[in-house]
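User: My advisor, Dr. K., asked me to get a structural model of this assembly before our group meeting. I'm new to this, so sorry if the format is off. These are the inputs:
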Amino acid sequence: EPEVTQTPSHQVTQMGQEVILRCVPISNHLYFYWYRQILGQKVEFLVSFYNNEISEKSEIFDDQFSVERPDGSNFTLKIRSTKLEDSAMYFCASRGQGPNNSPLHFGNGTRLTVT
Amino acid sequence: AQSVAQPEDQVNVAEGNPLTVKCTYSVSGNPYLFWYVQYPNRGLQFLLKYITGDNLVKGSYGFEAEFNKSQTSFHLKKPSALVSDSALYFCAVKVGGYNKLIFGAGTRLAVHP
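Assistant: The format is fine. Below is the predicted structure of the whole assembly, which you can bring to the meeting.
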């Protein structure tokens, strides 16, 4: 079964540095998402992306964050200047062109540690 | 505000016994509800969804969920728990047009042999 893949599985960075989290969604999917899960807390929506533009974003997704689909396969999340509170598990998800209630497929996540 | 509540941080069940993981929701309009499971160091795996129709929804790994509109609940159930069912379970509701999901806080299910 096709999977969403995320790299790296674990990223350690210093506060103030830029990080790029990478995702390869399922190949025929058209809707893309980033969620994050701070340790011990709930999974939170960050952003959705469709037709090469952001369709919705949460209040968490401030100017420090950006997303990009640089080619036909990758979907990236960039954090421009990381803060300690950005430490979390970041999940990429994608969805096909079916009904808009079709389930999201999640990757295994990237654990970001900001020191 | 639209939200999902999972009132139990943890549920403990003996193997072979039935299990229930509770979820209640608050949304405007008809709810689209989902259950996901998270195993250690893994992403969220889709279990089942309720969109419309039969209130009892069957999903993966023998799980089912019962939608109750009057109680605004969508409890996850399984008739006979397995040790391998031990994981973190998330209830979620779809909001908006792009399938944004609002998740509950999660319930850790521990099935003991």
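One thing worth pointing out at the meeting: The radius of gyration of chain A is 13 Å.

User: Perfect, thanks a lot.
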